[in-house]
Amino acid sequence: MALLSVLTPVLAVVLCLVIGFMLVRSRDTETTSTSPDKTKAASKANLRPWVDQDLQDDTESRAREEEDGDWVDSNEEEDLPHVPYSPKRYTEETMLERTKDFYTLMNQRRSVRFISPEPVPREVIDNVIRTAGTAPSGAHTEPWTFVVVSDTETKHQIRLIVEEEEEMNYRQRMGDKWVNDLAKLRTNWIKEYLDIAPYLVLIFKQTYGILPNSKKKTHYYNEISVSVSCGILLAALQNAGLVTVTSTPLNCGPQLRVLLKRPANEKLLMLLPVGYPASDATVPDLKRKPLDEIMVHM
Predict the structure, then answer these.
(1) pLDDT tens-digit series, residues 80-89
(2) How far apart are CA 239 and CA 170, in angstroms?
C-alpha cells in the first residue's frame, strides 16, 4: 500500500506527459497537413502566369509590385485610337504560290556553326531587327532588347564567358543523356563562331518596363512575346541570305548582362551569331517531320 502511494504521483506525472505529448503531436500534424494547402492558396492568389520563373538572374535586385508604389497604373495610360486596317488581299492562286515560295525559302534554313568573317552591311542588320520588332506582344508592351555586337574585343569577351560556362555544362550540368543526344550534331563547348561572325545579336527579354518617369510597367507574357520575335528574326535572316545558330547559353545570362551594361529588368533569352555561311560550311543531314506529324485538322 505504501508502495502504491509512492508510485501514484509518479504515474500521474507520466500520464500527464503522455497526454501532453499526444496533444502537441496532434497539433503539429494538423499544422503540417494544412500548411501545403495554405501555401498553395497563397501561391495561387499571387499567381501571375505571364511572369516567367526560369532564367533567374541572381544579380538582379528583384522588385515586387506589392512592395513598392512606383508601378504605373493602367488608368494613367492614354486610350489608343483605332484606325481602319485594309491589307492587300491576294487571289487564291497568288496565295498558294506565295505560301509555297515562302515554305521553300524557310525549308532551306539550317543552324549553321561555320560562319564567314566577311562583313555584312549594317543596314541589313538594322532592317532585320526592325522586322523582329513587328512581333505581337502582351498588351503591346514590346518587351525586347536586341543588342548587336560587332566590336572584336567585346565579341571575344562574350566567347570567353560562354565557353567557360558551356564547358561546365557539358562536363557536369547537362548529364550524359543530353551530351549523348548532342553527339550526332558534333557540338561542344568550343564556340569559334563567336569570334568569327561579323555580328552577335543578343536578345534580352524585359521582365518589366521602365517608363521615362521611372515608374515600372508590367510586361505580360514577356518570354512568349520575345520568343515570337525571335522566330520572326530567324525568318528575316533567312530572307536576307544570312545564317545563324540559335544559342541559349546556360548560366551565362548574368555575366553577359553585366558585360553589355544592360539593366536589371533584362534577362538574356537567346544569342545569335550572324553572317554569311563559310565557304566550307557543313550541316547535319537532318530530315523534318512531314505535315501529318505536326498538324491535326479537325
Answers:
(1) 899 999 999 9
(2) 33
Cell 505560301 sits on residue: 99
Mean of all residue pLDDT scores within the chain: 81
Q: How far is the C-alpha of 193 from the C-alpha of 244, rounded, in Å?
A: 10
Supply the pLDDT for residue 216.
93
Q: Which has the closest alpha carbon to 77: 140, 169, 150?
A: 140
Dump the DSSP string for 220-234: TTHHHHHHHHHHHHH
Which of 160, 166, 192 minimizes the C-alpha distance to 259?
A: 160
59 or 283, which is more confident?
283
Q: Looking at the domain 116-279, which fold is it?
A: NADH Oxidase (3.40.109)
pLDDT on residue 261: 97
CB 232, CB 132: distance < 8 Å: yes
Q: How far is CA 34 from CA 8, 24, 30, 39, 41, in A?
A: 39, 16, 6, 9, 11
Distances (CA, A) of 242 to 146, 218, 229: 17, 35, 17
Beta bridge partners of 266: 206
Condensed to tens digits (0 to 9), the pLDDT of residues 230-263 reads 999 999 999 999 999 998 877 888 999 999 999 9
According to DSSP H, which parts of 152-221 are helical? 152-168, 175-183, 193-196
Q: Give the DSSP letter string of 274-293.
A: EBPBPTT-------PPPHHH
Q: What cell was used for 71?
A: 508601378
* Prediction pTM value: 0.75
Supply the angle between the helices 122-132 and 222-239 in degrees, to the nearest 10. Answer: 140
Is residue 274 within 8 Å of residue 199, measured between CB atoms? Answer: yes
Closest among 47, 211, 218, 75 to 141, alpha carbons compared = 218
